[in-house]
Write a structure and sequence with these properties.
Elements: H1 3-10, E1 20-22, E2 32-34, H2 40-49, E3 57-65, E4 74-82, E5 87-95, E6 101-102, H3 112-122, E7 126-127, H4 168-181
Parallel strand pairs: 2-5, 6-7
Antiparallel strand pairs: 1-2, 3-4, 4-5
Length: 185
């Protein structure tokens, strides 16, 4: 099923949405549909619940930052699989800086962690997400490292509770403790 056929199947299910088929750079790439941000959850429910479509497997969500070349700034890209039909589809949603994207974690529970990752690394807010907090960066980290406007040369001391290096005396003492604990072979 190509993007045009998927749009034809989705239009009666999500009546006010203006879907757009995107032309992939390579024919082997999955069909891609641009979805209006306001109709994302309804489109996902239709893909998931409609007999004949049954995209029941959430594969991934990622994002691309097009700052400063384009507004809206972000493409949020979802990948879904229909194992019954052996088909895949990719949905794109465009969001501006500070514009929340509705969460789809209530349709596919597996979307919760990848949405948190995008929040952490891009600063994209997912409206309705029940646990939207940092996932990869420390809680006190300033900024979002995958944004195009993030400073490249960040100098921040490592946040750790253990010393990164030990002195020669500490190293020798550790070896001696290890020798005393281990049985002789």
């Amino acid at each position: 099923m190509n993007a045009t056929e998927l749009i034809a199947a989705l239009e009666p299910l999500v009546p006010d949405a203006a879907f757009q088929a995107l032309t992939p750079l390579d024919e082997s790439i999955n069909p891609t549909i641009l979805v209006p941000i306001a109709h994302l959850v309804a489109t996902c429910r239709a893909l998931h619940d409609t007999p004949g479509l049954e995209f029941v497997a959430f594969s991934d969500v990622t994002a691309a930052d097009f700052h400063p070349r384009r507004d809206p700034r972000y493409d949020v890209v979802y990948h879904f699989v229909s194992p019954h039909r052996r088909a895949r589809v990719r949905l794109k949603v465009q969001a501006g800086l500070g514009q929340p994207v509705p969460t789809i974690s209530n349709v596919w529970a597996g979307a919760g962690w990848p949405e948190r990752e995008l929040y952490d690394l891009f600063g994209i807010v997912f409206d309705g997400h029940d646990d939207l907090r940092r996932l990869m960066m420390p809680d006190d980290w300033d900024g979002h490292p995958l944004r195009k406007d993030y400073p490249v040369q960040v100098r921040k001391d490592a946040q750790t509770f253990m010393p990164l290096q030990v002195t020669a005396e500490e190293f020798k003492a550790s070896l001696e403790r290890d020798r005393q604990i281990r049985p002789k072979q």
